[in-house]
Here is the input.
Amino acid sequence: MAIADIHERGGRGLLPWIKSGEPMIWLNAAAVSLSVVAVLGLLFLLAVRGFSHFWPRDVMLVNATYQGQERVLLGEVVEQVQVSGEQLREAGFELAGAGPFYGRSLIKQGNRDFFPSDFVWVLDEQLGERRYPAHVMVVERLEWGNFYGTLISVSRDGELLADASGEPAALWRAFQDLIDETLAVREQIGDIERGEIGANNYQMERLRLRERSLELEGALDTAAQAELAAERAALDVRYAALQEALYALYDSVDGFTYGARLADGREVELPVSKVVRAFRPNAMDTADKAWMYLKKLWEFLSAEPREANTEGGVFPAMFGTVLMVILMSIMVTPFGVVAAVYLREYARQGFVTRTIRVAVNNLAGVPSIVYGVFGLGFFVYFVGGEIDQLLFREALPSPTFGTPGLMWASLTLALLTLPVVIVATEEGLARIPKSIREGSLALGATRAETLWRVVLPMASPAMMTGLILAVARAAGEVAPLMLVGVVKLAPTLPLDGNYPYLHLDQKFMHLGFHIYDVGFQSPNVEAARPLVYATALLLVILIALLNFTAVHLRNRLRERYKSLEN
Amino acid sequence: MSKLSEYAPAHRARLRHTKDRLATAGITAGGAGVLLAILLIFFYLLYEVVPLFSGAGIEAGERTPWNGPVPAYLAVEEQGEVGFAVAPDGAARFFDIASGAVIETLDLAGDRAAVTVVAAEAPQSRLLALGHADGGVSLARHDYKLSYPGGEREITPELSRPYADQALSLGRGAVTALAVSDTEDALVVVGEVAGEGLRGTRFRRQESFLTGETTLEEEALVLPTLAGDTAALFIGSGQRWLYRIDSAGDFTVVDLQRSGAAGALAIAATGKLFEGGGGLSTSAMLLGGISLLAASDRGELVQYFMVRDEQSGHRFHRVRDFDTRGVVVARILPEHRRKGFLALGRDGELQIYHTTAHRRLYSREVGAPGREGAAAIAPRGDALIYIGGDGQLAHWAVDNEHPDVSWSALWDEVWYESYDEPAHIWQSSASNNDFEPKYSFAPLAFGTLKAAFYTMLIAAPLAICGAIYTAYFMAPALRRKIKPMIELMEALPTVILGFLAGLWLAPFIEDKLTGVFALLVFMPLGILSFAFAFSRLPVMLRRRVPEGWDAAILLPVVVLIGYLSFAANDPLELALFGGDMRLWITRELGISFDQRNSLVVGIAMGMAVIPTIFSIAEDAIFSVPRHLSDGSLALGATPWQTLVGVVLPTASPGIFSGLMIGLGRAVGETMIVLMATGNTPIMDANIFEGMRTLSANIAVEVPEAEVDSTHYRVLFLAAFVLLLFTFVFNTIAELVRQRLRVKYGSL
Here is the structure.
């Protein structure tokens, strides 16, 4: 009924309007609107802040007078706020204006290696004319954060390639060429360090473990020792060769430098080998910026983090999250389905099954941290400790499975989501008409055959629903993972080219934990904040994708058995 | 027709049958196994928690003969293998505890005058002081070196004589009681000298800047003259308080910092130790040198320490007394690493106590009469040795893993050392070794409930009102869109909500505090004015809005009011609070303000809980049979009257169950509180301060807790409490829901 009609019966006016209860209905409607605004606003906030992180911002050059000195500031304006005059005077500011409120800007001036801090708050009234000179460049580096300044020279092994006296474009091109060359070499270095030397070290470690296990068995005779020594010598030789190649590569780019002028006029000489990319945002048009945006976005998705996780990409975290969720799904589905089938199809229905059902239902509401504590105590320390004693004695006292890792994280989350899968599957089983089962049995099929050929296929959409809910919950869960296997920085991916390829005992990175760690444990929160927004957005998108995939799968299954259900 | 067996040969039928049986067995075993595994959580947590509450146990070892006098000082080294005993005459020996065999004998008196008294510095200290008949004092320290020749552990005892080149003398008469305290700053020796009373000396350590050498600067302490004999003498930690007890049970506490001002000024407190009268049986300082333990010869056992006092500065307060069940304690052995102690009864009873937990863990006759023997506890607290007057060396293995937790330590106010009054405090670790762990769940449980309360304050009205409207008034087409959208929030990871709350919302609220409160006022007013204005519109215009789309037309209104409220923040703040509401709150109202406070947590966690409550409540209201409300409407009730009178009462159990489940979720949520509060364990309901919840506490501390330590198990107990908490809430909700289902069935 239209709310607007209701008051008509009592006549017009404020009092009858209130009496009709219509205001209450409006307030209830407002609660819905408010909730919707909150949800959409939140997603909007994440999207805006997350996506805008990669856009190259213009760099401002401005004269500022603060702390009694005139300085030249060069940097990006990151944030602008209004602060009340009283608050500022309280904090000891001397204000020129008399207004109640003052604009204040957070300027990212970078150059952590030359300035005391890379972010400065400045009152707008302290700033002079803002200029955006085209020659200002931003250099993203492996260390010390961004560099802001003007390029004045480029040299190779002490020999000047180009400087400001020549054509600016030539100088810039020479710089870019050097960067490209360095990047190519760095890629090779990365391949050797992570790929070949990593594999070599891995084999070395396996060799050590084999020796130790032979020693434990008492089978370490001279023949075995000789064999091990030979293998070790071969590995050593390879290692030495790789190391040599590595040094040669490092040497080849060591002499590349660029000269730059800081905002305060200082001139510095910096190594090109630490440069990730250099660009001049003020000279870029929108198309250039869009291209840069895409490149940075790709770097975020595909690269590894650098600078204590505050720069670079989140690929390992993304990979860890997905791998953990997949492992969790593989574990939870069969167990959940078996338990549901048992409860619904095989167990005698009575008080006990009813109680179990309530208990299982309730476990879905038990706080995740409780599962984390259980996982740490039972899986990691108890089961893991026993496994180490039985199977990995050669590695002791350093634990293999007796320490948090991928396997225990997936298992803990599988346990956490088990009730969800059980409940959903059970509901699906309950919906299948009895007549269908009876039909199958009447045709001579055994119970197992009925279950396998008729009941389970029909219940598969419900199982998928359970799995969807499980995945949605598991992908965003962080608290238990902090106890059973997630770390802020894992040196290698848990899936690689070294036998046995999937390293269940390794610790891994996770997007959710990444958000917590970078946003709250990082020493430079200001620098890390944009990245956290981007990571949060990525996590939301990832969860949405996982969900949509599962929903799509479920719908296809549902289509297939639709005719049977009616 | 061919025979059936052609299609189903006998062996195939058998195979199928076997398969079927195997499947049944497999599913039954698998299903029951999985269900058991789930229940395992409950039992495993319990298994980890139970040792906290079990008492102590001891196991007697062999007795070996001891040829020598009963020692005046007895100690055991770290590994529990070598013992050190000093006879009253200063003859000392290191001996093997298992066999009683002498390893090395030494004469501590040496060429000095006869030894008259032997005193240890503190329970865990290996420094002891000897008083001589000529008023002199000498010091000795026993140390142990570990080496592993040939893979075997070997312990080499060593005795050193610190300050041997320093002539330490308190007077000319025999020293009858002695206390010593040696720190990096100063060495203090106080003793009772026969015929001269209390005498004390402080040696300040001076380090030369040029040479780096340390020299001792002697300074005589001027101590008051006290009546009575000196039965026991102790110097407290920090070398400030000197405790002197006479055999009648009277105590005197002397302030050594004021010892220059001679006489009565330096006396900080005097009085009787025991309420029931009686003289002193024995006394000892607890680990840390703050608490004094004393037992009377009538079975009283008390703990005292200095407490700061508003009026008189300090007083010596009787903090707690222990029920000995009539046993007269003759010897107190404080533990070296914990705030517990062993007590030997006069006639051979052994009792084990813990002070903070106020707990007696063990009490039994073991045949070790405290009045005639000497005893020592191993540094790890796992062994006790006793040398009796009968010439026997006895030892016991002590199993006392978790003495420091009890029901009262967890939930009641406890008077911790150095505190002015009993308090609820959670402080599980500190940097120093003699720290008193404070395991009070009260502030954590309070924080949990506080977070849940503010969450429900925000989530419950929004979720229930929203559910009412969505289920009862909203157009079906809109409902199909709105419901999944709100439920979508449930899939939003809480770590994202927490991060937004901590890094975006908290600074935002701090900045726009006035706007937040303006929103609370403007939002309902604005909505109602809009609604009233809408009802004044011509009918033709109103008809344009389809039935049940009011929420949709309210969307821009809500956004606008929100925008206006925050836009009005600055002028309002200037007009009402002089430009800074935060400052105003702290100054004018005297309420402290944290940036990450309960309001932030309430809003963020509200967002996480709203979909849970909304979804269940909406289902409950929506499934109220239509004919009930139709009947009511047909009888002339307005829709609102129908809702309040018919629909809500029918659906109320479902709404209640939604609230319960929402509450369960708010209680257990970890990441949001972890990120959106300061995580300080305080007990204050102030909305502008943070809290520490049970779950966040677990997340913060478990990774650092040593496996199977008391701290670790206490955290498991916290998890168990959380589990029980949510289990109870969820069970209530589930039962209510089941009853509701039955009720609808009958309608």
